[in-house]
Amino acid sequence: MIDLNPIWLSLKLAFVSSLLLFLIGIPIAYWLAFSKNKIRSFIETLVSMPLVLPPTVLGFYFLFFFSPDKFPASILKEFFGINILFSFQGLVFASVIYSMPFMINPIRSGFAGIDKSIIEASWVLGKSKLNTLLYVIIPNSKNSIITAIAMAFAHTLGEFGLVLMIGGNIPDKTRVASIAIYDSVEALDYNSANIYSLVIIVIAFLILFGINQFNKRIL
Fold first, then answer.
1. Whole-angstrom distance, CA of residue 63 vs CA of residue 178
2. Are 26 and 103 in contact (CB under 8 A)?
3. How many CB atoms are located within 10 Å of the residue 102 CB?
4. Chunked in runs of 10, what are the mean pLDDT values of the chain (219 residues)?
5. Contacts of 183 (CB under 8 A, 6+ apart)
6. For 117, 149, 162, 219, which has the most beta carbons within 10 A of its beta carbon?
C-alpha cells in the first residue's frame, strides 16, 4: 500500500504557501503597479529573481543564513520556537520566497491593466486607496488573481530541489511528493514513483484546465 502522506503534505504546503503569498502579494503587487518610486525597478527585479535562479542557489543561502549558529535562526528558535531548517515551517518559508513571482507578477499585471479612469473616479467619489483596492481594483482583476493563486499553488506542488535542501527527507514532516518520487526511483520502486507522479500530473492538469476554463468564461 502506497503512503499517501507525501501527497497530503504537498497539498498542505502548497495551500499554506499560496495563502501567505496572496496576503503578501496583494500589497506588493499594488505598490509595483502604481508606485513611481525610483527603486520600483529594483524591487521588480528582486521579486522575479527566483524565475532565473536555480533552486539549489536559494537552498544554499537558506542553509547558510538559517543554520542554528546564525543570528536569525537562533532568535526564531529561542523566542518563537520556529526551526527553519528541516521543518515544515522552513518549507513554507522557502516556498513563499521561491514562488513569489508566480503570485506577484500576474497580479501586478492585472492591477496595471485596469482603466485608470475607474480608479480616479473612485478617488473623486471620496473612496480611500484601501477601499479602492478592495472594491474596485481587486474585483476588476479577478482573473489575474485566480491565475496567480493557481500558478503559485502548482509551482509549489512540484518543487523538488529547494525543499530537499531546506527540509531534507523526514517522513510525515518534510517528505513531500516530489521527494517521495525521488526516493522511490532510487529504491527501484517504479510502481510507487509512477503513482506519485500520476497524482501530481492529474492535480497539475486540473489546476491548469480550471484556469483556462475560468479565463474563457471571463473573456
1. 20
2. no
3. 23
4. 87 95 95 91 92 88 79 70 81 92 94 89 86 91 91 90 87 91 92 92 89 74
5. 169, 175
6. 162
Which triple of cell numbers denotes residue 65? 543564513
Q: What is the dihedral of CA 6, 7, 8, 14, to 10 degrees?
A: 100
Q: What's the CA gap between 182 and 86, in Å, rounded?
A: 17
Q: Which residues, at least 6 apart from 207, have a Cβ–Cβ distance to it below 8 Å?
A: 150, 153, 154
Torsion sign over Cα 59, 149, 147, 45: negative
Cα separation, 60 vs 66, whole angstroms: 10
Q: Mean pLDDT for the chain? A: 88
CA distances from 59 to 56, 96, 158, 164, 168 (A): 5, 13, 16, 8, 11
In whole angstroms, give the CA distance from residue 101 to residue 49.
8
The C-alpha cell that represents 81 in the structure block: 520556537
- Per the document, the length of the chain is 219
